[in-house]
Amino acid sequence: MDQRAQFGHQPRILAIVLAGGAGGRLGALTHHRAKPAMPLAGSFRLIDVSLSNLHHSGISDVWIMEQYQPKTINDHLRNGRPWDLDRTRGGLLVLPPFSGHEGEGFAEGNADGLLRQAAFIRDFAPDLVLVLSSDHLYRLDYRDVVDTHLRAGAELTMVTVDFDGDASNHGVVAVDDDGRVTAFAYKPEEPQTRIVAAEVFLYTAATLLDALGHLQDDRDGLGDYGHHLVPHLVERGSVVEHRLEGYWRDLGTPANYLRAHLDLVDGKGLDLADPDWPILTEPPQVVPAFLREGAVVADSLLAPGAVVYGTVRRSVIGSGATVEAGAVVEDSVLLNRVRVREGAHVKYAIVDSGADVSGQRVGAGPDAPAVVDRDGRRTD
């Protein structure tokens, strides 16, 4: 049954961006910043992807659920202006942990985080709740997901991808010919399909709130979405998929983070220059990138403020980073303000912001990159 008749109006959509996780899989790269604040392609942050998709999709009621290292996100978000979210009504709202009310304390997983905000969601009274992770690279018009949801009369529509990697790190989905989700396994050791949840979930608000209330007394807690919440709704037979056919990658591990950047420089990733769907961000207040005499640069992205004297191949050089004469950077990502000294050779590595690198830093390949922390120490 098409739900448009049920609502009797254009559905009111609340978007909740999950930005509270510690990002432990990224190791030293998230010791001092929240994962959504990680640089992307030299000029952006991971959270810019979901916020830009929301902007282009015309969704302007956006809540950011924070917990770990929130200042590093807030310094970037400011008042939401780059995404047209600085509004008198609606717009950007930050949800930090709190005390003194129902739902107080720190969340133990993203579904538990939704439970802690349930009273605020109920007061806002949306028809649909769009829940997004903030560590994936993809392009999607969420209005298409809404259309799928309403046409199917679903309680939950999950965006899925036919994944060419290790599905055991994701929620694995089985679907029938009509797009109904018939089975769901969260990070199974032996995945039964290649279809995985892209961590974009559209809930009918009443169903979400009812499910959170029903599950909140579970002795193990709600944990992440795949522990109890999504399986509960799948068992009810009211979950459908919306298949994402384009590029998608989880950037939550060093290998995936490097792989996504190499995809960009190889022309296999998203077109960051697409004028019809640009990634929006807080513009940097720095000078353009500068190539000094003798520099050799091939198949690379150079962020504003980068300075190259040496050799850079198939890499991403962050804002304010410097590659000295006699230094070589290959198949790597340098974050902001990195300095690679003369004689250093950085290959298959991710180098954290502000690091001073001398000597050789070589990873085992794109699937096992070296990770160099802010003090210039290899931590992988």
UniProtKB/TrEMBL annotation:
Residues 294-365 form the Glucose-1-phosphate adenylyltransferase/Bifunctional protein GlmU-like C-terminal hexapeptide domain. Residues 359-380 are annotated as: Disordered. Residues 15-264 form the Nucleotidyl transferase domain. Pfam families: Hexapep_GlmU, NTP_transferase. Keywords: Glycogen biosynthesis, Nucleotidyltransferase, Transferase. InterPro entries: ADP-Glc_PPase, GlmU/GlgC-like_hexapep, NTP_transferase_dom, Nucleotide-diphossugar_trans, Trimer_LpxA-like_sf. Belongs to the bacterial/plant glucose-1-phosphate adenylyltransferase family. This is Sugar phosphate nucleotidyltransferase. It comes from Arthrobacter burdickii.
